[in-house]
Amino acid sequence: MDWARIPYFLAVARTGSLRAAAETIGGNHATVDRNLRGLETTYGVRLFDRSTAGLSLTSAGEALLPVAEEAEQSMIAARMRLQGLDREAAGTVRLSIPTPFAVHTLPPILSRFCNDYPEIQLDVSVTNRFEDISRAEADVSVRVAFQVDDDVVGRKLFQYNTGIFASPSYLERHFEARGPKGDGLHWVGWGDVEAVPDWVKNSPFPRASLRHNLRDPMLIKELVRGGQGMSYLPVSWTHEVDGLRQVPGTDITPNRSVWLLLHSDLRRTTRVRLLVDYLARELKALKPKFLHASRSARL
């Protein structure tokens, strides 16, 4: 098997396009295409059908896929097992964190960790995508989720609360003049585009209009602060930024949980263990901020 080119084959098989595969693997589409064609030349078969819609596996590609995936898992397991033998508080730890934690919560914590352990280097990926620890996309991940079903070691730190927030100026302009069930109010939306999403239907304001639909939590927060409408936001954000007020008459409710995840083969790796324990201790100390809105947000 042409080991060096197998990752390019798997990336295209999983994404269906050269550009998406390049983003996943960290290269450019020309490199992906060159390695793909080289693999096809080596095996003497066509592995993908190419069309304007993207790339799809041929029967030969379908036959290769499970073999390539098994080889990938074997290589990952070997690397993880060797890394797990490391007993020194030195080296690189790959950490995946969601955007809100990168902006508000973790910078001072990571700075203190780096001061305490100067020989440990952090390779940080900031993404709202769930990076796959079982495929070695990260060594440690801070994840916000209701449940974790991955085949990894998971530590649930705490469940956080959310509320409906808007800017003071928006509430002054719109709240008192609202109609029944939120007529005249506006949601800054999130998630998939729907005519009336379930979360609007089940909210205290089911007849408020969905003014925007965004997929980045930080952009949602800034539009809410800018007076564009109201949205469900984590209460912890009210301790980090000004300009958020809890919408009168609404409740603070439990939402997802904050998890720390790591690959099982890295549990005994000193540098990974040090980072996980440090993050767990520091984040648990912040738990009250994740449960209660700031006093100014409740005025």
UniProtKB/TrEMBL annotation:
MF term (GO), any: sequence-specific DNA binding
Pfam family of the protein (one): LysR_substrate
Transmembrane segments: none
Coiled coil (UniProt feature): none
Domain of life: Bacteria
This protein's UniProt keywords: DNA-binding, Transcription, Transcription regulation
Entry keyword Transcription: yes
Tagged with keyword Transmembrane helix: no
Residues in HTH lysR-type domain copies: 1-58
GO BP, sorted A to Z: DNA-templated transcription
InterPro entries membership: LysR-type_TF_proteobact-type, LysR_HTH_N, LysR_subst-bd, WH-like_DNA-bd_sf, WH_DNA-bd_sf
PROSITE patterns found in the cross-reference section: HTH_LYSR (PS50931)
Homology family: Belongs to the LysR transcriptional regulatory family.
Protein name: Transcriptional regulator, LysR family
Organism listed in the record: Candidatus Rhodobacter oscarellae
